[in-house]
Design goal:
This protein is mainly α. It folds into two domains: about 55 residues; about 230 residues, Orthogonal Bundle (MetI-like fold), CATH 1.10.3720.10. It has 13 helices and two strands. Helix 1 crosses helix 13, helix 3 runs antiparallel to helix 10 and helix 12 packs antiparallel against helix 13.
C-alpha cells in the first residue's frame, strides 16, 4: 500500500511538473509576443511623444547638434503668439463640424442604408466613395471645384447672375469651404461605424416598441438612439482627436493663400518646424496639441462615466 501511494504521489508530482513547464512555455510565448508589440509601440509612439516634450524645452533648429535649453520660454512665446490662438480657434471650429455635422451625417447615411430603400448597393458605393479617396486627391479636386475662374461652383453661381467668389483666398470663405470638404470626406467613416452598430440592435426591441404603439420616430429616439450611445461616445473621441491632428487637407487646399484665417495647429506646427526651422518651438506646438487632445478625451470619458452611473450601468 505504501509503495502504491508513493508511486501515485510521484506520478502527481510528475504531472504537476509537466503542467508548470507547459505554463512557463505559454508565458514565454505570450511575453515574446507582448515584447514585440511593446517594442514597436515604444519606438513609434512613446519615444516620439517623450522626445517632443523634451525638445519643447530647447531652442533648436533641428539640424545642428548644438541646442540651448530655454525652459518654458517656448511655452511663454506660444501663449502670446496670436497665430497660435487663431489656429486653436480654427481647430475648435473643425471639432464642432466633426462632432455636430460629420457624425449626424454619418448616422443619417447609416439609417438610409439600414432601411428597405431600393438601390442600397449603389448608395453604399456613392456614400463611401469620398472616404476611399486620398486626402491629397480630394484636396486637389476641391481646389479645382472652388477655382474662382474655371471652377464648376463659380460657373454655376454665374449662371444665376451671382458674381464669382474667391473661396480659398478670402476669410471666412476659405475656412468654410475646407470645413465643408472635411465633412464630405469623413462622414462616411462614421456611417460605417453606425451601420455596424445598427445591425447589432435586436429586432425584438423594435417589435416590442411597435406593440406598444410607437411610430418610427419614437422607435428611433427610444430604441435606436439609446442603443447607439457607446458608438456615439467612441465616434466623438475619434472626431476630436482626428480634428486636432488634421494637417493634409488644410495644407493642400489653402497653403498660405488665406494667411492665418485657415491656419490650424497642424499647419502652424509644420510652418514653424520645417519652414522656419524652429524644431523646439514646433515641438512646443505639438506638445500642446497632445495635451489639448488628452484633456478633451478625458472630459468625454468622465461625462460618459457619470451618465452611465445615472443610468445604473456601472
Amino acid at each position: 500500500m505504501k509503495a502504491a501511494a508513493e508511486v501515485n504521489s510521484m506520478n502527481l508530482l510528475d504531472i504537476n511538473t509537466v503542467k508548470r513547464k507547459e505554463k512557463s512555455k505559454q508565458k514565454l510565448v505570450i511575453l515574446s509576443f507582448m515584447f514585440m508589440a511593446l517594442f514597436v509601440y515604444t519606438l513609434f509612439i512613446l519615444y516620439p511623444i517623450i522626445s517632443t516634450f523634451i525638445y519643447s524645452f530647447y531652442d533648436w533648429n533641428g539640424i545642428e547638434t548644438n541646442r540651448a535649453f530655454v525652459g518654458f520660454a517656448n511655452y511663454s512665446e506660444l501663449f502670446s503668439d496670436p497665430t497660435f490662438w487663431q489656429s486653436l480657434t480654427n481647430n475648435f471650429y473643425l471639432v464642432g463640424v466633426s462632432v455636430f455635422v460629420q457624425i449626424p451625417l454619418g448616422l443619417m447615411m447609416a439609417l438610409v442604408l439600414n432601411s428597405n430603400i431600393k438601390g442600397q448597393k449603389l448608395l453604399n458605393v456613392i456614400f463611401f466613395l469620398p472616404y476611399l479617396m486620398s486626402t491629397v486627391a480630394v484636396g486637389l479636386l476641391w481646389v479645382f471645384m472652388f477655382d474662382p475662374t474655371n471652377g464648376p461652383i463659380n460657373k454655376t453661381l454665374n449662371s444665376f447672375g451671382i458674381e464669382s467668389v474667391t473661396w480659398l483666398a478670402g476669410s471666412p470663405s476659405a475656412l468654410i469651404a475646407i470645413l465643408i470638404v472635411m465633412a464630405w470626406q469623413f462622414a462616411p467613416f462614421y456611417m460605417i461605424l453606425f451601420k455596424a452598430a445598427l445591425v447589432g440592435i435586436p429586432e425584438e426591441l423594435y417589435e416590442a416598441a411597435g406593440m406598444d404603439g410607437a411610430n418610427d420616430i419614437q422607435k428611433f429616439f427610444y430604441v435606436t438612439l439609446p442603443s447607439l450611445i457607446p458608438i456615439l461616445i467612441s465616434s466623438s473621441v475619434l472626431a476630436i482627436v482626428g480634428s486636432l491632428k488634421t494637417f493634409d487637407l488644410f495644407y493642400v487646399m489653402s497653403g498660405s493663400g488665406a494667411g492665418t484665417s485657415t491656419a490650424i495647429l497642424g499647419t502652424f506646427m509644420y510652418e514653424e518646424t520645417f519652414v522656419n526651422f524652429r524644431m523646439g518651438y514646433g515641438s512646443t506646438i505639438a506638445a500642446m496639441m497632445f495635451i489639448i487632445a488628452l484633456i478633451c478625451v478625458v472630459i468625454i470619458q468622465v461625462i460618459d462615466s457619470i451618465q452611465k452611473r445615472k443610468r445604473g450601468l456601472s
